[in-house]
Amino acid sequence: MTSKSPSDFLKNIIGKPVIVKLTSSIEYKGILACLDAYMNISLEQAEEWIEGQFKNKYADIFIRGNNVFYVTPQKKRNLQDL
What we know:
With 82 residues, the chain is mostly beta strands. Helices cover 10% and strands 51% of the residues. The chain has one helix at 6-13, and strands at residues 17-22, 27-35, 41-50, 53-63, 68-73. Strands 4-3-2-1-5 form a 5-stranded antiparallel sheet, with no helix packed on it.
C-alpha cells in the first residue's frame, strides 16, 4: 500500500471534474484548472449549486482559498441519474 500526500492527490486531479464546497455551503462543480499553496482554485466550465439546486453556469471562476471547505473528485454520473 502506498501512502499519498494531499499534494499528490491535488496534483492528480488537475484537469479533472471536481466539486469544491465552500465554508458557506455553496458548491461549485467544474474542471480543476489550477490551484496554489493557499488553495486558491481556478475552475473551468463551472456550475454553482446552492442547497442542492443548480443556480448558474460560468466559463471560468476563481475561488479564494480561505473560502474552501473541501475539494473532491466528482463522481461519474450514471445515465439513470440524469
